[in-house]
Amino acid sequence: MAYRVLGRAGPPQPRRARRLLFAFTLSLSCTYLCYSLLCCCDDLGQSRLLGAPRCLRGPSAGGQKLLQKSRPCDLPGPTPSERSAPSAPAAAAPAPRLSGSNHSGSPKLGTKRLPQALIVGVKKGGTRAVLEFIRVHPDVRALGTEPHFFDRNYGRGLDWYRSLMPRTLESQITLEKTPSYFVTQEAPRRIFNMSRDTKLIVVVRNPVTRAISDYTQTLSKKPDIPTFEGLSFRNRTLGLVDVSWNAIRIGMYALHLESWLRYFPLAQIHFVSGERLITDPAGEMGRVQDFLGIKRLITDKHFYFNKTKGFPCLKKTESSLLPRCLGKSKGRTHVQIDPEVIDQLREFYRPYNIKFYETVGQDFRWE
């Protein structure tokens, strides 16, 4: 009996140890599984909030069985390419550029809005210069191209028009220019329907000089067109000017302005002198900034006179290593016109100019 007792008491010792070891191992496995699941749940919760795919932290056996459809998490840490790149704060967004180009990235760069201000005219008056000058201002973001929404693309709708605009912050003004708006009969009503508070900028120039500049541009594209004199008159001997020719008709500013004043008060329209824009760009742009309700930041220090082109250019800025001048299509040498033709056109425009001066309350001294 003693042997049996000893025999039964001796051999069980290894089995009891194995049982204890199994229980201890099972306890550790359960603890590890619970910890893995808790971490995973935390990650899954964050993934749901951030819209990220689900994943597991660790590849525990229990976890793989319970969540076998979830993929393993990518371990944090830089990739080889990231290690070689200079470090930068992940949340840092680039400062909005002043070039007027659209930003389609982070919402932190702003929102696409319908323009609060428009440069509506006139062709060959200096609209591109005003656009390039004003977009230097940090409170203005401008569309670089001409969308022609209110004259050619109105059927596309305001959502399409808005999609073209640059992103702006709440403190910034969205601006676009299309010079043909000023002579489009439907444009004032359409702009008014978009917003009756829209501010309008009209760049005007001596209508005779403007017509010659217009003709010079067309001639560069179509060398076989008739002469300037031939297009300007129905009968030059009788002094009958052909007002159906667009180059002549655009310069009848008083006539076109009537359409705009049916919808917008004069205080909502600012007229820029194309001549003063050349001789005193800072002064003209100062008045534009006042009209837009922004601080006068564009001053004399931004300009220099380019003798080759014959008009002012922007000096280099912190964001640009080179001075910025208008393109090759600007500053062309005008074709030579018979002085008698010029005198006849001055006489034709005189009554329209006088009426325009009286209406806007400014003497542009074109006579």
UniProtKB/TrEMBL annotation:
GO cellular-component terms in the record?
Answer: Golgi membrane
Q: Which SUPFAM superfamilies match?
A: P-loop containing nucleoside triphosphate hydrolases
* Catalytic class of the enzyme: transferase
| Residues the record lists as binding 3'-phosphoadenylyl sulfate | 124-128, 205, 213, 330-334
Q: Does the keyword Glycoprotein apply?
A: yes
GO MF terms listed in the record are: [heparan sulfate]-glucosamine 3-sulfotransferase activity
Catalytic residues, per the record, are 124
Top-level division of the source organism's lineage: Eukaryota
Domain (Sulfotransferase): residue spans on this chain: 115-350
The topology of this chain with respect to the membrane is: Single-pass type II membrane protein
- Alphabetically, which GO biological process terms does the record hold? glycosaminoglycan biosynthetic process; heparan sulfate proteoglycan biosynthetic process
Enumerate the subcellular locations listed in this protein's record, separating them with semicolons: Golgi apparatus membrane
EC number annotated for this UniProt entry: 2.8.2.-
Region described as Disordered: spans on this chain: 61-111
Q: Which UniProt keywords apply?
A: Disulfide bond, Glycoprotein, Golgi apparatus, Membrane, Signal-anchor, Transferase, Transmembrane, Transmembrane helix
What are the cysteine partners in each disulfide bond?
313-325
Composition bias, Low complexity: 84-96
Q: Which PANTHER family does this chain map to?
A: HEPARAN SULFATE GLUCOSAMINE 3-O-SULFOTRANSFERASE 2, HEPARAN SULFATE SULFOTRANSFERASE
Hey, which family's this protein in?
Belongs to the sulfotransferase 1 family.
Q: What is this protein called?
A: Sulfotransferase
| Source organism of the structure | Balaenoptera musculus (Blue whale)
